[in-house]
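for the writeup, i need someone to sanity check this before i put it in the appendix. the sequnce is what the collaborator sent (i think, or maybe the updated version? ugh). structure was predicted straight from it, no edits. if anything looks off just tell me and ill rerun, i have time this weekend
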Amino acid sequence: MAKKEEDTKQKTNAARFTREQFVQSEQWQGVDRDILSIVLEDNKTYTIAQATQLVEQFMTRGVK
């Protein structure tokens, strides 16, 4: 039970960043940076894990 509480605390305490911060970050390069500018919304914050997941989902989605 303590493990679940600890995991929940870590998730809520994870650093969160805006779309602009991700796009300007040196951690993201090339196409990934372009994808972030598309998939992330203004006035919302995301963790690094969330941003990575959104980029991966965008890259693996099917073409209509």
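The mean pLDDT is 85. The chain has one domain: 15-60.
thx in advance!!
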